[in-house]
């Protein structure tokens, strides 16, 4: 089992520390607390990457973007 500091994972991926923490809270990655510092399990991070590449975490647009995408889809369907 390989571990990497959560701060290093966040820095490498270009996201904030809070984003990495949220991924852990949602159960997407495994975070271990060692002496008060968070470490990410590299195996769970690889699984997260695989799932993300497969589009498992993708959401439909919401708000104004969602409304315009629905209108565009309806317009394309009627043509």
Structural class: alpha+beta
Q: Which series of helices and strands comes N to C?
A: EHHEEHH
Overall strand count: 3
- Low-pLDDT sequence parts: none
Note down, in words, how this protein is organized:
With 79 residues, the protein is of the alpha+beta class. It contains four helices and three strands; from the N terminus they run E-H-H-E-E-H-H. Strands 1-3-2 form a three-stranded antiparallel beta sheet. Helix 1 packs across helix 2 (17-25). The N and C termini lie far apart (54 Å).
Structural topology:
Elements: E1 3-5, H1 6-13, H2 17-25, E2 31-34, E3 37-41, H3 42-53, H4 63-78
Antiparallel strand pairs: 1-3, 2-3
Helix pairs in contact: 1-2
Provide a brief overview of the structure.
This protein is an alpha+beta fold and 79 residues long. It is 57% helix and 15% strand.
Characteristic key phrases:
79 residues, alpha+beta, elongated
């Amino acid at each position: 089992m390989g571990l990497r500091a959560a701060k290093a994972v966040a820095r490498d991926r270009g996201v904030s520390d809070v984003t990495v923490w949220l991924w852990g809270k949602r159960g997407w990655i495994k975070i271990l607390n060692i002496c008060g510092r968070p470490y990410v399990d590299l195996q769970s991070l690889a699984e997260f990457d695989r799932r993300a590449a497969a589009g498992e975490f993708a959401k439909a647009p919401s708000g104004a973007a969602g409304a315009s995408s629905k209108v565009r889809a309806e317009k394309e369907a009627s043509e």
